């Protein structure tokens, strides 16, 4: 069984789980059939892959991401401080199946996964520090291996089957991250040196007014060319990216501080409270006050 340890109320309302994966263990695999989700919000040092079947209506919360899942859900979380939970929400299924795998792999630059054959796998696990969700198509590609994983008796074959699951998922073109990098406290990374320099600048100056001309100058491009380049490389406009980062910092402050919504609004670079409330509700499907209340309501130390 997993153990829980609570931080002080001032530090967090998140449970820190002490998992059974210890010492020289490679995997901890738990398969459950149940009628409801009761486990509280938590985080842990080890990585987690969680598969949920026959639980439509359950709410998956990973950092500042909150989504209602369908018949199947598969997510990987490798951020040691990234809180997550699957909440019952509107689910009425009495035949929920959950497979949870706790594991750890060395993601350092000198680790085994840094070698060429594992490039896509390591890249996926680094991105999963923000949480990673997979499409139904991805889930079906690995379903047979997931379905039989807990029944593999010999440890070596269980590990190789699990690594095969991860590798197949790493080839997906449909996987997506969940929490914002600013909320998950993950340093931005990019294949493009220009984009990385711009993202680092935004991360350091998100509380201030950020001008297009300044960012274009950092990238060594004209403003119009840079705007097109940034969207091409990130899939988002510059303003969308800046708003996303500011909302991530704001969500973290709503969780970690008792500052008023107005104080958080201005501390995160928004210069208009009503505009902040409107954008927050549009992106998070709730107001800042509701976000804070819901967080504290569902995340009590036990």
Ordered list of secondary-structure elements with their pairings:
Layout: E1 3-6, E2 15-18, E3 27-34, E4 42-43, E5 47-53, E6 59-62, E7 65-68, E8 72-77, E9 84-87, E10 96-103, H1 119-127, E11 132-133, H2 136-149, H3 155-170, E12 176-177, H4 181-184, H5 193-205, H6 212-219, H7 223-234, H8 238-256, H9 261-267, H10 273-284, H11 288-298
Helix pairs in contact: 1-3, 2-3, 5-6, 6-7
What is the helix/strand order?
Answer: EEEEEEEEEEHEHHEHHHHHHHH
Please bin the fraction of helical residues: 40-55%
Query: What is the straight-line distance between the termini?
Result: 15 Å
Poorly predicted spans: 1-12, 298-302
Instruction: Let me know the largest β-sheet.
Output: 6 strands, antiparallel
Q: By helix and strand content, what is the structural category?
A: alpha+beta
Q: Beta fraction of the residues?
A: 15-25%
| Global Rg | 20 Å
What is the β-strand count? 12
Strand order, biggest sheet? 3-10-5-8-11-12
Tell the overall outline.
globular
- If you average the pLDDT, what whole number results? 88
- Count every helix, treating DSSP H or I runs of 4 or more residues as helices: 11
Explained architecture:
- α1 (119-127) crosses α3 and α5 (193-205) packs antiparallel against α6.
- A hairpin with an 8-residue loop joins β1 (3-6) and β2.
- It contains 11 helices and 12 strands.
- The chain is 41% helix and 18% strand.
- The strands form 3 sheets. Strands 3-10-5-8-11-12 form a 6-stranded antiparallel beta sheet. The protein has a 3-stranded mixed beta sheet with strand order 1-2-4, with no helix packed on it.
- It is globular, with a radius of gyration of 20 Å.
